[in-house]
Amino acid sequence: MRIVFLALLLTGCVSTAAKIVTAPVRIVGAGINTAVDATTTTQREADEDRGRAIRKQEERDRKAVKKAEKERRKAEREATRRFD
After folding, report:
1. CA–CA–CA angle 40, 43, 46 (5° rounding)
2. What's the pLDDT score for residue 49?
3. Is the pLDDT of residue 68 over 70?
4. What is the model's pLDDT at position 39?
5. DSSP character for 84?
6. How is 18-82 classified by DSSP, letter by letter?
7. What is the pLDDT of residues 30-66, one digit of tens each?
8. Half-sphere exposure of 30 (CA within 13 A, CB side)
9. Closest by alpha carbon to 64, among 56, 77, 49?
10. Cα separation of 46 and 50, whole Å?
């Protein structure tokens, strides 16, 4: 009877000890998955980033065209003043 009781107690201790020993490994494993998820980019995120970059470039192009048009009109006005 004592042997059966002792065996049951030890089984619980071994199970608990195994959980304690493997806990740091499980925590590190979960951290690796989180780190990998944080550093990888999904196709959707890549598409959004590319779209954002394209829109910014288009905005810069529009501003450049607007500035060039403004300077052209200014040059025309100055040219017509010289001949007046």
Report:
1. 80
2. 96
3. yes
4. 74
5. -
6. HHHHHHHHHHHHHHHHHHHHHH---HHHHHHHHHHHHHHHHHHHHHHHHHHHHHHHHHHHHHHHH
7. 666 666 666 778 999 999 999 999 999 999 999 999 9
8. 6
9. 56
10. 6
